[in-house]
Amino acid sequence: MAMLNQVSSQDVETLYFNHHGWLLGWLRRKLDNSFDAADLAHDTFVRVLRKRELEALREPRAYLCAIARDLAVSHWRRQALEQAWLETLATLPEPIVPSLEQRALILETLEQIALILDALPMRVRQIFLLSQIDGLTYPQIAAQLGVSINVVQKAMVRALMQCYKVLYRGG
Question: Could you tell me the pTM of the whole model?
Answer without folding.
Answer: 0.55
